[in-house]
Each structure stands twice: as C-alpha cells, then as structure tokens.
Amino acid sequence: MELLPKRGSMRISSLFICSLYLLLSTLLSPAYAKKQTYVVYLGSHARDPEIEVSTLEYNTVRDSHYNLLGSFLGSKEKAQDAIFYSYTRHINGFAATLDEAEVAEISKHQDVISVFLNEPRKLHTTRSWEFVGLERDGQIQPSWSNARFGEDTIIANLDSGVWPESRSFSDEEFGPIPAKWKGICQNGEDPTFHCNRKLIGARFFNKGYFTGVGSQANVSAFNSPRDDDGHGTHTLSTAGGNFVSGVNVFGVGNGTAKGGSPKARVAAYKVCGPEIPGAGSCYDADILAGFDMAIQDGVDVISISLGGTAGPYFQDSIAIGSFHAIKLGIVVVSSAGNNGPKEATVSNLAPWLITVAASSMDRQFTTNLILDNNMSFTGVSLSDKCLPNNTFFPIVTAKSVKAANVTDEDAELCKTGAMDPIKAKGKILVCMRGEIGRVEKGLNAALVGAVGIVIANTEANGDELLSDPHIVPALQISYVDGQALIAYVNSTISPTAYITPPTTLLGTKPAPVMAEFSSRGPNKITPEILKPDITAPGVNVIAAYTEAHGPVDKGFDTRRTPYFVQSGTSMACPHVAGVAGLLKTLHPGWSPAAIKSAIMTTTRTRDNAVERITNGPNEKATPFNYGAGHIRPNRAMDPGLIYDLTDEDYLSFLCALDYNEKQIMLFTNSPFICPKPISLVNLNYPSITIPFFNGPITVTRTVKNVGSSPATYIARVINPPGLFIDVQPKTLTFATIGEQKSFNVTITATKLSAIGGNLFGSLTWLDGKHYVRSPIVVQASH
Ligand SMILES: *[C@@H]1O[C@H](CO)[C@@H](O)[C@H](O)[C@H]1NC(C)=O
Ligand SMILES: *[C@@H]1O[C@H](CO)[C@@H](O)[C@H](O)[C@H]1NC(C)=O
Ligand SMILES: *[C@@H]1O[C@H](CO)[C@@H](O)[C@H](O)[C@H]1NC(C)=O
Ligand SMILES: *[C@@H]1O[C@H](CO)[C@@H](O)[C@H](O)[C@H]1NC(C)=O
Ligand SMILES: *[C@@H]1O[C@H](CO)[C@@H](O)[C@H](O)[C@H]1NC(C)=O
Ligand SMILES: *[C@@H]1O[C@H](CO)[C@@H](O)[C@H](O)[C@H]1NC(C)=O
Ligand SMILES: *[C@@H]1O[C@H](CO)[C@@H](O)[C@H](O)[C@H]1NC(C)=O
C-alpha cells in the first residue's frame, strides 16, 4: 500500500511495483518452485464477535490454519514454517510463504474465499478546521463543543506509526483511559517509546514487510511503533490531536494546531516501514493484522491513508479489514489516492468505506518574485532561506545555462547535473515543474551555485501551487505566470530579480479547489457506487511531524520541524475521520453507514466565491472529483435524515457481485438467502449512480428520520441535462424519530438521441431546516 502524501514527483505506478517484485523473485529461485508470500482469506470466525474469547480459542483457530494448510503441504510442521500470520480475532485467514502450484490448489478449497499476493501498497494546522466551519474568526462554534470535541471516542490509524513526544499527543487534562480499551503499548526495540492517557495504544506489524521487498530495509526502523517517516504522526494528529497553540512552520502558518476530535483518545497501528525505492512500504499481510488487532482493541474510528491499485474487494486487505470493522460498528475512513487528474483512478472503492478526495483551503504561503522592471509574480513557498534584502540577482531559464551534454528538456526540469555550474553560479534559475521532486530541483540548483529557483507549472498543473520546504530561496508559480516570466526573461538583456520571504495569506479565493493529484471517479470495480464519497482539505495541511529527519528527508537536511506542511489525499482522509469521531461521541448508537450518510448529505458544492467548486480556473468540478461535495461538519452533526445500511444490505451487495450463498456463509454466522432480483443501483447509498443508462430506470431509497418529529420533507430535484427525474412520493412525513420511509426515483431521457456522456444532477429533501442532498450521476451510453 502507498502512503498518500504528495511528495514531489515521487509517483510510482503499481505496474512497476509488480514487475519489480516478480523480477526479484524470478531471479532468486527456480521458476517451478517460486515462493512468494500470500494472504489466504477465509471470511469470519464462526463465533459471536461480541463475546470475549480466550487465548485458548485463538490457539485453536491457529491450529485449524496449520491443519488446513498442512493438508496441502503434506504436514502440519511444514504449514507452521510457512505461516507467518494467523488472523484469529475477527478476520479469519493467514499469511504464508507458498508457491504457485500450492496457491492454485488452496484456492479451490471450499473454505477459502480468496488467495492473493502480499503486495506492497503506498502511503497516499491548522487553518482547516476554521475553513470547514468548526471555528469562525478563531471562535469555536457551538456544534463542536456540543460534540464534546470527540471526547471518549477512540480513533486509530493504520500508517507509519507515531512520534509519541509530540505535544499533539500530550495527556495533560485527560482523565483515565476509557474502560472499553483493550489494547497495549508495544514499544518493541525502542525503550523510549511510551503511551499515555491521550495516546492510549500503539502496535507494529512488520512480518509481511520483511518477507517482501522490505527485507532490504533498515530493520530497526520497523521494530517499534515510532514514526520515522512523519506521515503517521501527521494523519493521526489531524484526526485526533490536541489543541496546541503557537504552531508554525519556519515562522509561517502561525496558529493553533488541532485534530477534528481534539479530545478523542488515539492509537497508532504501524503497518508501513521505510519506503523502498521502486516499491511501496505497507504490505497487505501487515495491514490485515493491524485491522484484526484494532478491531479487537476496541477502537471506534479507523483512518487509513494508503492504498494501491483498485482490484476485487476480497483480494484487497483494506476492503477486507474494513468489512470486518464495520460489522462491529467501527467507522473506516480511507484516502482516494493521488493518481489524478486522470479519470477512473480512485482506489478504496468498497461501499463500506468512506473514501476521501483532497481539495485546497483558503490559505496560501505566498512569496513574491520581483523583477527589475517592478513587475512581480506571486507564488508559494515554505523556504526558510531568504535572499539578502532588496538585492537583485540575475535571473535565467535553466535551459539557457544547460550543461553541454544534456537535452533542453532535462535542463528545463533542473535535473541533477543538467546545468553548467559556470553559467548558473550566482543566478536565480527558472525550472519547469515535473518528473523529479520540486525540492530536489532546488537542491540541484544549489549544487551548481545558483542562489534561488522559480518553479513554473506546466499547462497540466495549471494553478495548483504546493508549498514546499525548499532549501534555497524559491517559489512555485502558475502556468500562466510561468509563461509570462519566461517570455520576459527570454526577451530582456540581463534581467534581474529578487525573491521575498514567504508570508501567510488567509481568505484566498476561490477555495476549495480540487487538488490536481486527487484521484478521480468513476468507480472502475462497481460503477453503481459513486467514488470518491467526499472531499476535505488535503493541500498544504499543517500537523504534527516526526523529528527523526528533516522536512526534505535527506541526509543534508538537518532542520527539524515538530509541525510540518504536507499535501495529499492522505491529509484529507483524517479530516473526515476527525469528524466521524465527533459524530460517534454525539450519536454513539449510529451505524458507520449512518455516520457516512450524515457526512455526505450535508456537504457544500460551492466555493467561497459562491461558484461551483472547480478543478482549476477553466474547469468546473463534478461528483467524480468531489463525490457528494466538501465536508461541512456543523451540518453533519444534525443531518435530519439518514440513508442507513445494515449487515444484510452488505451481504446482498456481495450477492450482486456474484458470490454464492455458500461463500457468503463464510462472512457471517448464519445462513443468508440472496434476495432476487437484486440490483446494485438499489443499495441504500447516500448518492445515486446509474452507469450504462439507456432508457427509463427506477431506483429505490429509504431514509430514516433522525431530526425532529413530526417532520415533513419535500423533494427538490436538479435534473441532469437532457434527463427528467421523478420522485415518488414527493413528500415524506415522519411522525416519530427513527421512522423510515421509502421512495422511488425514476430517471427518463427527455431527448434520448441528444444525450451522452456523464450527466450530473441532485436530489435534496428539505424540511425548512435540513437539506439532505444526494448527487445523481448518470452515465449515458449514447
Ligand atoms: C536505522 O534506523 C534506526 C532507527 O530509526 C536509526 O537510528 C539508524 O541510524 C538507522 N540505520 C541506518 C544504517 O540507516
Ligand atoms: C509566528 O510565530 C512565531 C513564533 O511563535 C513568531 O516569531 C512570529 O512573529 C509569528 N508571526 C506572525 C505573523 O504572527
Ligand atoms: C519601481 O518602483 C520603485 C518604487 O515604487 C521606483 O522608485 C522605481 O523607479 C520603479 N522602477 C521602475 C523601473 O519602474
Ligand atoms: C530585511 O528587512 C526587514 C525590514 O526592512 C528586516 O526586518 C529584516 O531583518 C531584514 N533582513 C535581512 C536579512 O537583512
Ligand atoms: C554532464 O556532464 C557533467 C560534467 O562532465 C556531469 O557532471 C553530469 O553528470 C553530466 N550530466 C548528464 C545528465 O549526463
Ligand atoms: C524562450 O525562447 C526560446 C528560444 O530561445 C523559445 O524556444 C521559447 O519558446 C521562449 N519561451 C517563451 C515563453 O517565450
Ligand atoms: C416503488 O416502485 C416499486 C416498483 O415499481 C413499487 O412496488 C413500490 O411500491 C414503489 N414505492 C414507492 C414508495 O412508491
């Protein structure tokens, strides 16, 4: 799995990971007995998950795994050698070293749901809470205090661990640990690692990593839950970190850092080790072990900011782990991925996950480039290096100072060794964004003696500006500005310029804007389910960080930043986990689906300039970019109506995916009869998506009243272009709280021949106080 921050151009396609993995294994062993590590997934345990079980019983389960695998390998002893994890708590299955022939045989066994490779995945302050409305002019809004800041809720993340010394996890003012907590603080090889009444638990899971490509890594960096990366500390503090005042990064972004549920307790499950070049850092077998334990330990919310390429649900450790979590009422929030802006790139597609896209907030760390003709360009940077005051330096394009042996393209991108030190010395270089890390371009410029850099966006990047901790005076500017700057530099004899130190600008418009990197829909596994579900702040988010390395994570960077800025859907995900924590405190009896519905039906789809949210200056965003819209926690706490889902609904969903009743029995304790006929468009999801539309279709939804009673809601529809939407009945009356009402939505084409492509509309139920909005997405076949 991939941690999902947006780090320069360090994007590696999964295809590459797989081929590298296969290549290594092919080289290491003869083809006929190629051993690799796999997960063998067996569904649920045949026991009531609410009942406490003894260690003896776990041993019995483990034994059953040895017997099952032993029957294929010839002996129980061989099975004991091969198995490196037995999942005994909630998830039933094991991880083992096997060859392809063995896998083929085991897959046929009637108790086996799936067998899949233990593959690596990648990991995908705070103004953001004010931006989403929990604060206004620095004042806490009543809904936040009503939800008691997430008190008594336990939020966990599966990530790269945690930096326990961070002030975001201090336990001052926290009472005793909630009695329901059953976890531990496993410090492994790091005696300085500790938990407290705020950070109540930590564990690490590394066997899948070390049997995979991770065997090349520094072992001691993954033998404790300590976060040597920074990603896990950042995401956990965004979901549930304390209020910490006086936080800034190199003097900018001053403010009080905090999580969405600042009074929640938190726990870290480290499932990701140091990143191996060319591979991910989080392995399926470890992710499943983390889920199994977090469920057992008694967490309420799981935030998981990582993912890989979307595939079948039961060959995907996040889909499997979260399926077992939601059965026990645990909300699981995941990131959508950083593979945008291409279509159909969104991952974490299971309908029981809340899948989060990333967008900007109304804050920028601005820096100006001032030219000798008084022309100036505004860009962004988080560099702590400044040019001497008001001293102008020659400015040149990197291409114009290229080394003799390199191409124009390599020089333009400021690649390593592409500039000539004699020509570049003492100058500000203009580099194009792309291919290599943005901070690395600055380093390359510094290595040839340049005094600063300007990174100009390409046309594809448009206006997307990411503030980076450059090690030289630097700024990043938009495509349009970049072209104007290059034209000036091109056409002027001896131009000179000056770069100002970064400052914090608030209230910038428009915001939010969808991040270019945020993965897009449609959902390529189950197109009837809209993904992503929602968007939240994920650009330039300040939160707690590791102090194991500097912000650039390279040996030369000796700076340490207890709070740091990062961007990615990884950063957006814990914002929603923090809000889910508030909802858990406020409505402890609500199901994960109810909490998700509350979050999805109360969003905004307009930005702070009161226009529809955009993907940049020239493109309106759609539900394929932001799902139901931008998170609005104040309203989520009082949604009025919810679209709920039960375990049976998810089992029916599995029937629709063509799992037969015997297989479905493996997920549950009691027999289940698949309803017939069954249609995926009727899953009671808070959004409506019709793929392959080619004529009238009716879908059914059921809402539950959780607002006031009596209550009367009327339907308001925005028709997608060329379509007509009829809702029956058009009025829903509720006499009591908890009452449920069903309605039908019929979609017809008004001019069938004229329509085609993706069409977007919405349905909103209004009672004068609540607006319960669902996006409607129709993919017309012609
Ligand atoms: C391995 O990791 C540990 C813990 O992070 C660190 O102290 C040590 O310096 C690392 N060793 C190497 C060779 O990188
Ligand atoms: C930000 O905080 C730092 C340290 O607390 C302080 O030195 C600086 O003056 C502050 N800047 C602003 C603009 O408030
Ligand atoms: C630039 O602005 C400064 C102060 O505003 C002024 O003194 C100077 O003459 C201007 N230079 C040009 C080239 O316009
Ligand atoms: C630059 O000028 C500002 C204000 O004029 C001053 O506060 C700052 O210390 C100066 N910086 C340097 C590096 O001289
Ligand atoms: C170009 O030549 C220089 C000097 O010989 C060398 O340092 C640099 O690495 C070379 N660059 C490339 C891209 O080959
Ligand atoms: C700058 O000049 C080069 C030729 O020297 C040309 O290829 C390029 O298009 C010019 N760029 C702009 C933005 O004018
Ligand atoms: C929805 O449509 C179905 C099938 O046409 C019908 O049986 C059902 O009564 C309708 N439900 C409502 C609430 O109108």
From TrEMBL:
Residues 37-124 form the Inhibitor I9 domain. GO terms for molecular function: serine-type endopeptidase activity. Residues 151-629 form the Peptidase S8/S53 domain. Pfam families: fn3_6 (PF17766), Inhibitor_I9 (PF05922), PA (PF02225), Peptidase_S8 (PF00082). Residues 406-485 form the PA domain. Residues 1-33 form the signal peptide. InterPro entries: PA_dom_sf, PA_domain, Peptidase_S8/S53_dom, Peptidase_S8/S53_dom_sf, Peptidase_S8_Ser-AS, Peptidase_S8_subtilisin-rel, Peptidases_S8_3, S8pro/Inhibitor_I9. The keyword Protease applies. Keywords: Glycoprotein, Hydrolase, Protease, Serine protease, Signal. It comes from the Eukaryota. The active site is at D159 (charge relay system), H231 (charge relay system), S570 (charge relay system). GO terms for biological process: proteolysis. CDD domains: PA_subtilisin_like, Peptidases_S8_3. Residues 682-778 form the Subtilisin-like protease fibronectin type-III domain. This is Subtilisin-like protease.
